[in-house]
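Hey, weird one. I pasted the VOC domain-containing protein sequence into the form twice and got a warning about non-standard characters only the second time. First submission, copied straight from the form history:
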Amino acid sequence: MAAAKGVCLHHISRETSDLKRLAKFYKEILGFEELESPKFGDFGVVWLRLPPVFGLHLIERNPETKLPEGPWSSTAAIADPKNLPRGHHICFAVSNYDSFVQTLKEEGIEFFEKTQPDGKTKQVFFFDPDGNGLEVGSWAAPQI
């Protein structure tokens, strides 16, 4: 039995060295809305929402952090979108899958696309500008 009760996903955070660039990507490519964000003093944040409730918090990267900023700064195999189906990623469902993929093409975003054995479910895997893995599928959105 789980210790927590009434659990739901509240938000996912992504650290970035360029808040404006990353926020623009999520707003233009996936339709996030920018919310009023709190002031934390010594670092910037941008809070985004995908209606009705999904939250994405973008947090300014600590310049003293020595970790690479994603697969673009690494020689790891994950840098190729073909490796994302089993790698770390956030997944979204869209009702306009084919036109969404066309937008990725028009924006010059490299992606890997696959169709499930049922022949109906399509998925596309790609990276945001900081190298975070994303998946978008042709599933119906969960009902609230």
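That's the output from the first submission. The warning seems to come from a hidden character in my clipboard, not from the data itself. The chain has two domains: 9-63, 71-138.
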